[in-house]
Amino acid sequence: MEYLGIDFSCALGSLRHGKIPEKDCLLPLISKLLGYCIVAASTTVKLPQILKILKHGSVRGLSVVAFELEVVGYTIALAYCLHQGLPFSAFGELAFLLVQAIILVAIIYYYSQPLGATTWIRALLYCAVAPTILAGQIDPILFEALYASQHAIFLFARIPQIWANFSNKSTGELSFLTCFMNFAGSIVRVFTSLQEKAPISVVIGSAIGIATNGTILSQIILYRNAPATEEKKKK
Asked: Angle 137-138-140 (CA atoms, 0-180°, nearest 5)?
């Protein structure tokens, strides 16, 4: 019995005989189910952040460069996984995260008017190069180099935001729910990547996500009362 690439026959067979499924039977099943759960959750993971910005009409405390780099990182990661032919459950969330990240950057641009010339150049350059990367129409060696660099891209995408939070002693309009979902998703993705025998570089990327998202999440908790404290001082 197979559904969406998930083989239930092994587990169901054991349960029919009143036995607990063996580890070799159960772990792949759990991995697939968790993978699809991540994909499903990813469809709304950035929605809390988008709604928070729209509600307050502000991008206070948000690093534009951080969100731009995130879009670049998702683009490279998605293109690589498609090129490697990995099962959708192992990377499907990247497609939804990329779309939401692009929408988020567009909203940040809208509330960051007027935009400088360099911002427009970065946006136009991405629009020109991204389709070629997603289509896999680049040299395989360059593709590997790009994917290797995306770990650094995701790392440097988080560093400006982490530094801004630390400098301001506030996380501004950052959404706790979005950051928490990113953190939890990275933890689960490490398990599913190992189970799906994904390249070690994919696992490393998820591990970096745990460290950086965990740092931002801790900052949101640490600085959650900062604005109120500052306002009291002003009074």
From this structure: 120
